[in-house]
What does this fold into?
Amino acid sequence: MKDKKDSQLKVLKKVFPFIKPYRGYFALTIMLALFSVISALYLPILTGDAVDLIKKLADGGETIGEIFVQYTSADFWSDFKKVLITMAVVILIGALAQWVMTMVNNKIVFSVTADVRRKAFKQIQKLPLSYLDKTSSGDMVSRMIADVDQFADGLLIGFTQLFTGIITILGTLIFMFAENVMIALVVFLVTPLSLFVSSFIARKTYGMFKLQTKTRGEQTALINEMITNQKVVQSFNREEAVIDQFDEVNERLKKCSLRATFFSSLVNPSTRVVNNIVYAGVALTGGLSVIKGALTIGQLTIFLSYANQYTKPFNEISGVITELQNALACADRTFSIIEAEPEVPDADDAAELKDAQGIVDISNVSFSYVPEKKLIEGLNLHVDPGQRIAIVGPTGCGKTTLINLIMRFYDVNAGEISVDGHPIKKLTRHSLRRNYGMVLQDTWLKKGTIRDNIIVGKPDATDEEIIAAAKKSHAHSFIRRLPQGYDTVIAEDGGSLSGGQKQLLCITRVVLSLPPMLILDEATSSIDTRTELKIRKAFDTMMEGRTSFVVAHRLSTIKNADVILVMKDGHVIEQGNHDTLLSKGGFYANLYNSQFSA
It folds into this structure.
């Protein structure tokens, strides 16, 4: 129980820095709440005055005719009109204060949630790949969108009702004690019972809401994964299995949601029971006071109105507490992104890599994703400017991992990687990666025009440069056949484009920017053999004079490499050009011959 309370307090402390920039609005909303409550509390007094005026006239006449004459008298209507005008002004002030307060609260809440999302999104850009590799993208999306929306809803209800409710309770008690101490004590002494009931149930519901948000994130991740890979699901006839998997998560979400909602919904009826006791106590005590002559009927009307106004905030606050439980549970998941350990920042004295020559040295490098499972150990390599380095080997031997280390997507566990004599840990990541061009097996295209997707690395490229790059990569012909050519809008991840067309666009992107060093990781895997021959010629031109790292499974594509690194179990077991390695008859020769065996 104590751990849950501490957890909620920790989350609240994390929220406060986001509210701080809007403290002016915060002070304004409290002031407006005060105006709204005072107007609401003053209204029963005016109602009581009106009742007493009517009662006074009724007491002054014995027959209906006498009473009617007094009701139509100028003196009565003069006093009664003053009360009515005052009531109208008070109602108008209260309504205006409530409306402005709602607007201010909306400003605070949606500004805070926008700041939280902005901070979380910025943090994602700083997170290391190791974090993103371990976290489902669907769950990340759920934390950024659904959880922040739930947090906003709870925060909005909190700002709208919490302050108004607290001020109403305190104000009502003050007004009641000022009118009659005995009746006020009856109300005050029953209050702790309402607080105990609502707080007891609220403590129980926090863990339930936390489980609900976690399960919702799990469901979002599953939906995202299945929609993204729907073709794979259908290809392997996994529809029924996926439906069963979804039904299982959906059922768990239904159960934990119902449980959280059921227990949280107990707060309102429980507090209403206590509130009815308060109202009955006021009515009984006030009625006896009227009989004794200690109260007028108008004053009793005031107290009965105050009893309603006093108990109403307890119902609202109990609902607020329930929403806040949910909001804090959701906020905790979002803050887990914001507080995640970011990528190791660039050193303070990190240098900018400019006009790279392409000298790459890998000295005694060791690396593993998981400490207990070694991957690369004691790797050494020297690459001269303009050399073409091919990296081959069986799946899982560390080829792509080596590329990740060269680009500093991951930092080495031991050893050092240098470019032009500068250890990459002493270079800014931006300048290092700006000097590399990458074409991967997995394509990445954003929603936008064909042109937008090509100019990612060179935003200021002219149309002539874009077309020239597309012609070199052999993408121009298919782009020209699209409905709007280079202005054709494609969906995220390329939409209806074929795998080969997507890869041609990614190749065009690199051809356009053409940095001094290149990384080609299965860059032609989705392209037909005829187009591949053309692309290889384009690559030969593109790689001329540039240090290039080529990861390939089809060994026929790397015959012209200056150096071929043959990797196995994280070690370079053979090194040399194609002819040399074939003549050795070793591991490379076996790999190469196996691809051309009958």
About this structure: Residues 2-338 form a domain with the ABC transporter transmembrane region fold fold (CATH 1.20.1560.10).
